[in-house]
Design brief:
The protein is α/β, with parallel strands linked by helices. The chain has a domain of 184 residues: 3-Layer(aba) Sandwich (Rossmann fold), CATH 3.40.50.150. The chain contains 9 helices and 12 strands. Helix 1 runs antiparallel to helix 3 and helix 7 runs parallel beside helix 8. It is globular, with a radius of gyration of 28 Å. This is Methyltransferase domain-containing protein.
């Protein structure tokens, strides 16, 4: 038999394999599935896992995780998410990181049109190495400039400076894993207060749709990072919830043991302004009062009912009761219809026809 000409995949020291279209997913899934089921389901339980077991698994995960963040991305894309980007494309991503992993993945796997930016195309999004720089090597300002995929140097300001991208769907993946310092005037003392890159994007973005990947309000398991999570700042999430409404939320199929990342899609909300006229009798009343409410069309409202498995029967019972009542109404209506038909038949009969 002849030797196979197919080249074997070569594995890098960071745990990823050459020739794999989604090496982050492959490496992460391999690690997670290698753990005992009890460790995967009850990792932070004080009764199911011993401190020694937890420490050993945590160290192994941290070693692999940091390598994969540096070589790939902070969050892991999976095939379920690809139709979302294809549906809402074309895409503009800010904070794509040095690897531009998600941008390349969605373009290569789904032919999604993507323009991706990062202020540092050399070190953006990486844990190891020097602190993220504000400027990249001048020779590295544009990468992968080909049809449907452009990776460029730039930050949130590009959303308002480039007219060709302001109507694209904005994609943010772990936008605030590294806080962007406020850009104070050189002649003034620099403000030490951190500025959320994601919030800065909202200042410049004029489009209607945002896709966010990471943890959101009350999703995180980390007490120190609660309630906003580890991927986007509270000032961004507060404004996002005020000016947009969520129309889709999906759990990422593969998360690290301590992470609960999701993909969510947000649409800019229309607002309704209501003006209330002050009473002439009230001297303290300053006149008109304006209040604003968001308008969310019924077809864009997320379901409110949700239940954990331990209480799912309560929600299911309610649904079953509704179905039972609907079925009873159908049976009653059918019985009434049958009686009316019988009466009509009897009234139309003449002598002798009954035989």
């Amino acid at each position: 038999m002849g030797k196979s000409k197919k080249k074997k995949q070569q594995q890098h020291s960071n745990g990823v394999e050459r020739g794999d279209s989604n090496p982050l997913l492959t490496a992460q899934r391999k690690f997670i599935t290698s753990l005992p089921k009890q460790a995967r389901s009850h990792f932070f339980s004080p009764t199911h896992i011993t401190p020694e077991q937890r420490a050993e698994i945590w160290e192994d995960q941290a070693d692999l995780g940091e390598k994969l963040v540096d070589s790939c991305a902070w969050a892991t894309p999976d095939p379920r998410l690809l139709p979302v980007f294809k549906h809402f494309g074309p895409i503009v991503e800010v904070g794509c990181g040095a690897n531009a992993y998600w941008a390349k993945w969605m373009h290569n796997e789904g032919n999604v049109d993507v323009v991706a930016f990062d202020v540092s195309l050399n070190e953006g999004g990486k844990i190891s190495g020097s602190k993220k720089t504000n400027k990249s090597d001048s020779s590295n300002k544009t990468q992968n400039k080909k049809k449907g995929l452009v990776i460029r140097e730039g930050g949130p300001e590009m959303l308002s400076e480039d007219p060709d991208i302001n109507d694209r769907t904005l994609f943010l993946c772990y936008p605030d894993e590294d806080i962007m310092p406020s850009q104070a005037d050189e002649s003034e003392e620099q403000d030490s207060r951190p500025l959320s890159m994601a919030a800065a994007c909202l200042e410049h973005y004029t489009g209607d749709t945002i896709i966010h990947v990471g943890e959101l309000f009350c999703d995180t398991l980390s007490v120190d990072q609660a309630p906003w999570g580890r991927s986007s700042a509270n000032e961004f999430q507060e404004r996002l919830g005020c000016e947009y409404h969520c129309i889709l939320k999906m759990k990422l199929e593969n998360n690290w043991l301590h992470v609960r990342d999701t993909l969510s899609v947000w649409k800019r909300s229309e607002t309704c302004c209501m003006v209330f006229q002050g009473s002439d009798e009230d001297e303290e009343d300053e006149g008109e009062e304006e209040v604003e409410y968001k308008y969310i069309p019924p077809e864009e409202m997320l379901p409110v009912d949700a239940a954990a498995p331990c209480v799912a029967h309560l929600l299911k019972k309610k649904v079953d009761n509704v179905k039972s009542r609907e079925q009873n109404n159908v049976n009653v209506n059918e019985e009434r219809k049958r009686k009316r038909n019988d009466e009509a038949t009897q009234n139309s009969q003449i002598a002798g026809n009954a035989w």
